[in-house]
User: What shape does this take?
Amino acid sequence: MHETVQTSMPLLTPDQREQLLANGRQPGGDHVPVVKFFNPVGIGTWLATELDADNDTCFGLADLGFPEIGSFSLEELATLELPFGMHIERDIFFTGAFPISAYAEAAHETGSITAAIRILSNAARAGRGEGA
Assistant: This one.
């Protein structure tokens, strides 16, 4: 019997890496999140706005039960081994639409990044005249 090895998707595309690095060269800005990472089998959501020149230290909003702004390691996310052979994943459907401060405020009010994204996405659609 052959064992199938599943490789995980890269956490960043080259374009995302370049945008995060460009944002990192302008620290302190209220940047729009470039990428969303999530734990597919449990708690954990991250919105990244900046990447330091070390190509490891990201800045953004992290939610491991309580959303907070800060830094996190891209390498740690990439090497985290989850149950069932799963890994942290990049949300390929996420597109940041608001500055990180808006996501942080909404996440603190709702208790999670996921709820904040839902509320802000609905507000953006309503603002464009689209249905909820």
Remarks:
- The chain has four helices and five strands.
- Residues 14-126 form one domain.
